[in-house]
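Renewal narrative, Specific Aim 1. Our central claim is that a sequence can be written position by position from structural information alone. The example that follows is taken directly from our test logs and has not been curated for this report. It begins with the structure tokens describing the chain, in the order in which they were read.
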């Protein structure tokens, strides 16, 4: 029986976090006993941590990582390493803002013996045209810098063998902000056994989006420099 960590970063998600946890938690049923739903919550200034702590009293397979860096990317890196260090078979990443659909997970899980990673492809974006445009720009840059073609580099709906993630996770500094994009790039560049599957993506269901267009531009400029650096290190 395979073990699974469902991992999600959280930041000021008091409006959605309980509902999201309750929606995703049942998917641990039928998995190995050491399977967990892991929420990385550090830096929240609302009741997110309090809600999670109360839920842990009811849900024994729920864990909180509260010693990570504040940003989204570092939280992902910390959770992926946590799965590796605990010898977990699979890690599934989604976000805590209720934009993804747990009902689409089973189709990914059923493909786990055929692929080392099944990555979401958000063909319809409920979070707005600007976010869809940013994703298209990212995919264009990956094609230019790395020569890889992917339909969606950053979807927060991905099932990956921990063994595969472990091949690349140490390439990131602990504060690197775009690990999912670069993991997708590494998988494509090194021709890992991966596939993309269409997933739905709703508008944000609550909370405050911490990333706005000026921040995206700033992140994008830094990301391009990081991409070039990673490309020089790749063989």
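The sequence written for that structure reads:
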């Amino acid at each position: 029986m395979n073990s699974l960590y469902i991992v999600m970063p959280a930041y000021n998600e008091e409006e959605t976090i309980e509902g999201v946890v309750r929606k995703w938690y049942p998917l641990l049923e039928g998995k190995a006993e050491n399977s967990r739903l892991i929420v990385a919550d550090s830096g929240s200034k609302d009741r997110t941590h309090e809600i999670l702590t109360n839920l842990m009293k009811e849900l024994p397979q729920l864990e909180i990582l509260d010693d990570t860096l504040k940003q989204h990317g570092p939280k992902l890196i910390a959770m992926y390493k946590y799965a590796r260090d605990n010898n977990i078979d699979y890690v599934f990443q989604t976000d805590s803002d209720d934009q993804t659909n747990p009902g689409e997970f089973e189709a990914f899980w059923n493909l786990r013996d055929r692929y080392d990673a099944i990555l979401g492809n958000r063909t319809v974006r409920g979070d707005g045209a600007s976010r869809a445009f940013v994703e298209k720009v990212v995919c264009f840059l990956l094609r230019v810098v790395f020569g890889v073609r992917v339909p969606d580099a950053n979807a927060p709906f991905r099932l990956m063998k921990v063994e595969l993630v472990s091949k690349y996770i140490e390439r990131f500094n602990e504060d690197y902000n775009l690990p999912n994009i670069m993991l997708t790039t590494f998988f494509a560049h090194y021709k890992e056994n991966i596939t993309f599957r269409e997933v739905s993506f709703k508008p944000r269901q609550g909370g405050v989006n911490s990333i706005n267009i000026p921040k995206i531009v700033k992140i994008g400029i830094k990301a391009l420099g990081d991409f070039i650096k990673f490309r020089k290190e790749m063989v």
